[in-house]
Specification:
Length: 448
């Protein structure tokens, strides 16, 4: 691991050392000073700007920086008016010894000392301070997202309003797979809230409205987001007790930033915000006080430098139960040409070999991709939802050369406009190119 340490003594040096742990890195730095007979106070060492070698060398457009320490102190080092979006998952202050269920077992809800509550006054001052510091770091059109539950969200809302932010939305994150409530004295807790606010009352903010619409199957995205809780696939490098799902950050980042933007997370934890940011080509600055979590973030960052892992995580992160889908349909060359002239495509229906299988995702079909054995694919928007059943005779009358089945599922598409898409998509999936397959739209068109 490579550690970069900023020294705040009179020379304001920056030193990089190779060391297996942060503590050994610190000892090495102190050794350098002892050699120079300079006495270094603890307060002179601004520990740490921590980078892995990998992130520095290979992430030309996806910087990943974790500052270790208390965000109340380290936020001062972030340049004012430099941040496009902040995502913050602050302590909810609910580590009060209660119980919950995890993997079918009863567990204590305590997350760590950082999550133990204090007096209402302490909680108010805490939130007021970090929200105030964060506001000065945002660009004038910048926005902030803060997650919470009823334990902290009302105080956060009050502070936002006092500090001059303008609240834009309160998103309800509905978990599709909440653990049961053991006490049976309440409704099951299945939601968290995410407030979205902008820096200024009057200055306008960035919102990628069309992208959100696209993610939502073509209709306006609402403020209720159904996203599953964090999955095992995103805990491969270790666990954080309150890790947020990449899928939640995916949506937040796409909604409020563009490629190359900088995202800040003052309570970085396992670095989820940074991982999602880098996977989407955004830069990241995180602040986290616990060494174990800083190291976990760096392991996660290192993992996504591997092309395969990166692709796998991207695909999983983009999975979305509301996303528009594409039906890839093989047609013989002559019929494909005719389909592209008439805007009509067909698939065998009934129980003949290779018939259309109406699977999950069909209800969100928005596009058709025509191909011949995986070759010459063309993407078109469907003109209408659903399909009609035609007889073979009706298709023959339109000039198609159908043979095997008595009736067919017919769809109409807008043949006037072929849509450009990522031609590298492999339609030879499991060799069944003759069976119509459903894919998420994001496999064809990258959502940025
Ligand atoms: C709710 S967790 C964030 C989890 C994160 N969203 C993730 O996906 O891993 C809050 C994190 O903030 C850290 N934290 C708490 N108070 C802090 C402070 N004052 N400065 C910096 N980090 C702090 C905790 O150690 C914890 O890892």
């Amino acid at each position: 691991m490579k550690y970069q340490v900023t020294i705040t003594e009179i020379l304001s040096r920056k030193i990089s050392v190779e060391a297996p742990t942060a503590e050994i890195a610190e000892e090495q730095i102190r050794g350098l000073y002892r050699d120079e007979e300079i006495v270094l106070d603890y307060s002179d060492l601004s520990f740490f700007d921590v980078y892995t070698d990998v992130s520095e060398k290979n992430s030309a457009n996806s910087d990943f920086t974790i500052l270790q320490g208390d965000c109340m102190e380290r936020l001062y080092e972030v340049e004012d008016n430099s941040i496009d979006t902040i995502f913050a998952d602050p302590p909810y202050f609910l580590s009060n010894g209660g119980i919950s269920v995890h993997s079918g077992k009863q567990v204590c809800v305590n997350k760590g000392d950082w999550d133990k509550g204090g007096t209402p006054e302490y909680i108010y001052n805490f939130n007021h301070k970090w929200l105030s510091l964060c506001r000065s770091k945002l660009k004038d059109n910048g926005t902030i997202w803060i997650s919470g539950t009823h334990h902290n969200i009302h105080v956060v809302m009050r502070c936002l309003q006092e500090l001059g932010y303008k609240v834009l939305n309160t998103i309800t994150w509905q978990k599709t797979d909440p653990p049961p409530n053991l006490s049976c004295k309440y409704f099951n807790f299945s939601t968290e809230l995410v407030i979205w606010a902008r820096k200024h009352e009057k200055k306008t903010h960035k919102f990628n409205y069309e992208t959100m619409k696209q993610l939502n199957g073509g209709s306006q995205m609402t403020d209720v987001w159904r996203v599953p809780a964090v999955g095992l696939w995103e805990k491969q490098q270790g666990k954080h007790p309150t890790q947020k799902p990449l899928r939640l950050l995916y949506r937040i980042i796409l909604a409020s930033t563009n490629e190359g933007d900088t995202i800040l997370d003052p309570f970085s934890g396992s670095g989820t915000t940074g991982i999602a940011a880098n996977l989407l080509g955004r830069k990241y600055i995180g602040i986290e006080q616990e060494t174990d979590f800083v190291q976990l973030s760096l392991r996660r960052k290192e993992a996504i430098e591997d092309e395969n892992t990166r692709k796998k995580l991207c695909d999983k992160m983009r999975e979305n139960s509301q996303e528009t889908t594409v039906l890839a349909n093989h047609m013989r060359e002559k019929d494909r040409q005719l389909a592209m002239q008439t805007g009509i495509t067909y698939m065998r229906a009934g129980d003949s070999k290779g018939s259309l299988l109406v699977k999950q995702g069909f209800e969100r079909l928005g596009y058709i991709c025509l191909h011949t054995n995986g070759n010459n694919p063309e993407l078109y928007k469907l003109a209408k939802k659903g399909f009609q059943i035609w007889t073979a005779e009706e298709l023959r009358m339109k000039g198609f050369s159908v043979e095997n089945a008595p009736y067919y599922a017919v769809m109409r598409f807008d043949a006037t406009k072929a849509i450009p898409f990522d031609q590298s998509i492999n339609l030879h999936k499991r060799n069944y190119t003759t069976v119509a397959q459903i894919y998420p739209l994001s496999n064809f068109i990258e959502i940025k």
